[in-house]
Task: structure prediction
Amino acid sequence: TFTKELRTSVAARTADLGAALAEARKLSAVVENGFEGVVITNDARGDGHFILYVNPAWERVTGWKKEEVIGKLSPRVLKSGAQGREFYERMWKTVTAGGTFLAEIVNKRKDNTLYDAEIFLFPLTLPTGEKLFVEISRDITERKKAENERERLNKALVGRELRIANIFTQFGVD
Result:
């Protein structure tokens, strides 16, 4: 009767919640143990814009501990000054319109050292209607150094080849 139906309904709902909780734990483990930094912020602007979550990879790259930033600081704490105001205006215009933003930027760690980062920023609206911003980032400093060194070596090689070609030209050698 009613009690039996209620028990059946509660048991089914409990099973559904248990499955949802297990799925949430899996997703949380992926984010917590991933190599990319993850930071989640609220949708407020100005003084009300705060970091709500960071994962351990973000802490390792930036030098900031979650206890120091969650609810206290905004992502502006990483601002190096390398990107101009126009960059940030374009970024926020994109994500507040519902788009995703991918870029390579220069950020600043807690110890004020700079690092190159690749960021992927997107808006997220929760079922409650709460709007958040999620940034997934990776430190690409070593990759950028390698690219710069490769470019330097290529330029040196081309310069050397041009000097050799000029020498051959001066002596009439084809």
